[in-house]
Design a protein that fits this description.
heterodimer; A: mainly beta; B: mainly beta; five-stranded antiparallel beta sheet; 0% helix
């Protein structure tokens, strides 16, 4: 158990909808990262937050947004969903930036 | 192309050693990591090595780093069927906030 908790484990929705994925980092970790894992693109870094502030952006679409709350949990919001958004979404956390990241078990998003 | 490259497949027999290789391109990498992903699960941090080290051993796992060639390897001694998984190599770079992953090597262990 990595100590990183993601909910829900599975999500099935339709095109055009909006979903929110939630992540609770390991106790004491200030930095949260979001990744997308799909069969054709591999593991793609989306965005990073550190102590409530956005720190780095990767290949995140404009339809996607995230935030980190004062209690350090984070949410990833995906809107106007398309079939190609079907993937595993992972959250990871680390004590500080540039420290080993610990991953949650992911949320599997299926768009029908 | 990928900044971090790995071969996609490796098959070994139970009890043999497995060696998974990785090359990276950024000489300013600070940490290099190995993660394991079992089916339906997240990425589990197996081990990592700081860029000023050549070798790190942790029970059955040995990590070798050749900084000159930008080559990282993970050796699993006495490979077991439970080691069957996808192994990801990753690098992080000082003053950069993301981690770059390879495409993963699928290790299959045959009894």
């Amino acid at each position: 158990d990595s100590g990183v908790t993601q909910t829900p484990k599975h999500l099935i929705t339709a095109t055009g909808q909006r979903v929110t994925l939630r992540c609770s980092p390991r106790s004491g970790d200030l930095s949260v990262y979001w990744y997308q894992q799909s069969l054709d693109q591999g593991l793609q870094f989306l965005i990073q937050y550190y102590n409530g502030e956005e720190r780095a952006k990767g290949n995140i679409l404009e339809r996607f947004s995230a935030q980190q709350f004062p209690d350090l949990h984070s949410e990833l919001n995906l809107s106007s969903l398309e079939l190609g958004d079907s993937a595993l979404y992972f959250c990871a956390s680390s004590e500080d930036v540039n420290q080993p990241q610990h991953f949650g078990d992911g949320t599997r998003l299926s768009i029908l | 192309g990928e900044d971090v490259e790995q071969s996609l497949f490796l098959s070994v027999r139970e009890g043999d050693s497995s060696v998974i290789n990785c090359t990276y391109t950024d000489s300013s990498s600070t940490y290099l990591y190995w993660y394991k992903q079992e089916p339906g699960a997240g990425l589990q941090l197996l081990t990592y090595i700081f860029s000023n080290m050549d070798m790190k051993q942790d029970q059955r796992l040995t990590v070798l780093l050749n900084k000159k060639d930008k080559h990282l390897s993970l050796r699993i001694a006495d490979t077991q069927t439970g080691d069957s998984a996808i192994y990801f190599c990753a690098e992080s770079i000082e003053n950069n906030n993301d981690m770059r992953f390879g495409a993963g090597t699928r290790l299959t262990v045959k009894p």
